[in-house]
Specification:
There is one protein chain. The protein is an alpha+beta fold. Helix content is 46%, strand content 19%. The protein folds into 2 domains: 67 residues, Arc Repressor Mutant, subunit A (Orthogonal Bundle); 106 residues. It has 10 helices and 7 strands. β5, α7 and β6 form a beta-alpha-beta unit. The longest helix has 15 residues.
């Protein structure tokens, strides 16, 4: 199973990336990051310095504290966002438990959910297409809801239902597919073949 650590050698940097991408709207200081990452403070400081120099993060001094936050203008921000979404949290759990989940053709997360942006109550965060074992999916979603302390809106369709709704231009499905997304299971081209050529990915 591919992991974020397969691409980034530093264990501390992997942990920090997960923290920053899990909290993209927050500014965090060194001791906060050290506590969350459960690493030595000097190791955290070294990685923060390296990440700052290469543009991954930014820093800002407020009072006596230096705060760090993710740089959303970083050239590879979107690539890392997708990588982190697939290798942490609900994305990782879906991939690790794919066999238990049944025959999942596609699984995608909404761009708003991944970016931790405010969503409307009727917006779908997670869509699965296939023959899904619902008790297994419910366990995964509940675990992530507990971790994030927020509700996750998800919907499941069989492949036949997905294609039928698409052929009828069902407003509910089109509302999901017209927004940015990150593919967790399945590929974008495969999804587009069953939708239209205009739907965007993250």
């Amino acid at each position: 199973m591919a992991q974020l650590k397969d691409f980034i050698i530093s264990r501390v940097r992997v942990k920090l990336l997960k923290i920053f991408y899990d909290n993209p709207q927050e500014m965090l200081y060194v001791r906060q990051l050290t506590r969350i990452a459960d690493e030595e403070i000097n190791a955290v400081r070294r990685e923060l310095d390296r990440m700052d120099k290469c543009g991954l993060i930014k820093k800002e001094k407020r009072g006596n504290r230096l705060y760090y936050f993710i740089n959303q203008s970083y050239d590879f921000y979107e690539d890392l966002l997708s990588l982190v979404a697939k290798s942490t949290g609900v994305g990782l759990n879906l991939r690790e438990n794919r066999k238990k989940l049944g025959k999942v053709k596609f699984a995608l997360l909404s761009g708003k959910f991944v970016r931790r942006k405010d969503r409307l109550s009727d917006e779908v965060d997670l869509l699965l297409v296939g023959d899904v074992v619902m008790p297994e999916l419910n366990l995964i979603v509940l675990k992530e809801q507990t971790r994030l302390k927020t509700e996750i809106n998800y919907t499941v369709m069989t492949e036949a239902e997905f294609m039928f709704r698409k052929s009828r231009r069902d407003p509910f499905l089109l509302a999901i597919l017209s927004k940015s997304r990150i593919m967790i299971i399945g590929d974008e081209e495969g999804l587009v073949d069953r939708t239209t050529k205009e739907e965007p990915s993250v």
